[in-house]
Amino acid sequence: MVRKSASGRIGIADVAVKAGVSHATVSRVMNGNFTVDPEIAARVRAAAVELKYQPNPVGRSLALGKTDTIGIVVPDLANPTFQAILRGLSRAAAQDGYRVLIADSFEVSSEETILAGEARRRCDGLVLCAPRMSDAELEEIAPSLRPLVLINRTTAAAGVPSLVVDYGQGVQDIAEHLVELGHTRLAFLAGPPRSASNNLRLQGLEAFKAAHPQVEVTMLEGGSDFDTGHGAVDAVLESGATGILAFNDLVAMGLMSGLHERGLDVPGDISVTGFDDIPFARYTTPTLTTAAVPITELGEQAWHQLRALIRNEESDAPGSRYQPKLEVRASTGPAKAARTAVHG
Amino acid sequence: MVRKSASGRIGIADVAVKAGVSHATVSRVMNGNFTVDPEIAARVRAAAVELKYQPNPVGRSLALGKTDTIGIVVPDLANPTFQAILRGLSRAAAQDGYRVLIADSFEVSSEETILAGEARRRCDGLVLCAPRMSDAELEEIAPSLRPLVLINRTTAAAGVPSLVVDYGQGVQDIAEHLVELGHTRLAFLAGPPRSASNNLRLQGLEAFKAAHPQVEVTMLEGGSDFDTGHGAVDAVLESGATGILAFNDLVAMGLMSGLHERGLDVPGDISVTGFDDIPFARYTTPTLTTAAVPITELGEQAWHQLRALIRNEESDAPGSRYQPKLEVRASTGPAKAARTAVHG
DNA sequence: ATGAAAGCGCTAACAC
DNA sequence: GTGTTAGCGCTTTCAT
Description:
The structure is a homodimer of 344-residue chains.
Chain A: H1 12-19, H2 23-30, H3 38-51, H4 57-64, E1 69-74, H5 80-95, E2 99-104, H6 109-122, E3 125-129, H7 135-145, E4 148-151, E5 162-165, H8 167-180, E6 185-189, H9 196-211, E7 216-220, H10 226-231, H11 233-239, E8 243-246, H12 249-261, E9 271-273, E10 290-292, H13 295-310, E11 320-322, E12 325-327
Parallel strand pairs in A: 1-2, 1-3, 3-4, 4-5, 5-11, 6-7, 6-8, 8-9
Antiparallel strand pairs in A: 10-12
Chain A binds a DNA duplex (16 and 16 nucleotides) through α2 and α4.
């Protein structure tokens, strides 16, 4: 029995009526099933075009058990790193006909769990970006979120690949670079406390300190944006360090700006380094020494991993590690005679 | 008849079985229907918790005819302007329990129509961000996309509010500022050709030229990123202009960087202005004179408009106009004695 | 107050 | 080859 669609919108039933066939046939035609008589198929297609019929994805999703949508949960959509990941992910997924649903947790780790679950139920898979939740919680919810890909975080839960940038190694490379320039007093302007990538940087610094006991490394609290860097000038000067490793490029830029306002020269008085190599980094004055992370590619790879899981294929690289690449530019230079700490 | 859910996942039927009630009752409880006996309701809730049951949003969407999701179509997710709009939109929508589905058209205007339609069918409403398509096409498809909100674009189609930034006025304010500083030869480093906001800027410049016939305004082709600005140094110098209006802050930063490399001083030799007032603008060297656009707020307002349409309420402000605010910083200064055009 | 049943729009197994 | 029918998981009349 064929009824006309009840709602206002054009449904498969309307096309069926117009073409004088059953809605099953319409469905077949719309899905390219070749067992349909060419003549009838043409009639159906004509009716569909005339009525501007487009299958309702919700009905389709319910019947097929898939949504052709993936979700991504990020701690902060304002952060350029996550924007870049989102961009890479969205572009790659789009090429395979998948859309992306975004969920911003605004750095509230308790919210993350809820958001992730909700997003996952609407989608065929999930990318969890540098989640702020604890290892225990992550491991507990991970199975229920699969297919799941982790970025900048790992978990003991099975079948959950993760893509992580080796921030630890990157920080060590930067520190080595500063030491080679003669710096013996360094300071690290840290990122958000719960950030996994910040922890990796801290671990890297520990390794560095162990290898270079003669170098003094001061730890300063921070954040991930310009203002953090700009506001850290006092603390930086107080530390007496001549080589500053900022959490990321944004922080470095804010810091350089603040130092400039104080009449200090970079790298003449102080060398500053960033992290990420965002496009801005090569246009700052001076241009910024940093560690390049192929961050958009990370988003793209996340999709490839997720796609493999969704298709139930063997993942070719279950968990990849990305090595940042040191980019030496103009914000770092030889250490000048040791500065004395400035107090106040 | 109550059957257990067929698929692997926990469904409403499983909870019904466990609680010894019909799934209708479970549905009532899950939706806070108070006609259910408190004792039974408690039993159902307990069963739901124990089974970790969460209603399937797809089934819900099909039954309710709504998805609690909105879509946003942007021409380029890499553009900070659209990122900011997305952020504002996402944050505001999340507060009302709505999620955001993104569709990036990658500046391909033919793709926009398809993407918009697809996104719309999965969502309860759509935000179309500075679409590149023609007025005719926009007007034609707009009705089928409603509830629809336009950003930086208007249409004759009925019931489609739009939020537009008055880029024309902003550009005029900047140009006036440069004239007051004594500049008589200006150049505009344009944005993407199909960009509506670029057209608005061009219109603003026409108005400016009409009001200031004595001022020479050179038009230069451009784009919307750093590289555009950086690569425009030759053209800028060739123009002989002393006051350069860059399409946006990114272009301005690229240009300043390029000028710096040539040993030219900003604003000593040339004044440079941006547009948007992205956070970076106050940290460049020199700090950037620009026109501030409350772009995140724009995304937020887009949601409020869309929400009103979805709820079928009267929109309180059917189509708002945002005035950019001139921010004078250090990248603009008095014109020095007229430079002669540099050739080659 | 609760269960049975219809229906949201679609796909797919099953008959013919 | 095509129509009939039974779901997909949920909400919501309509009976009781």
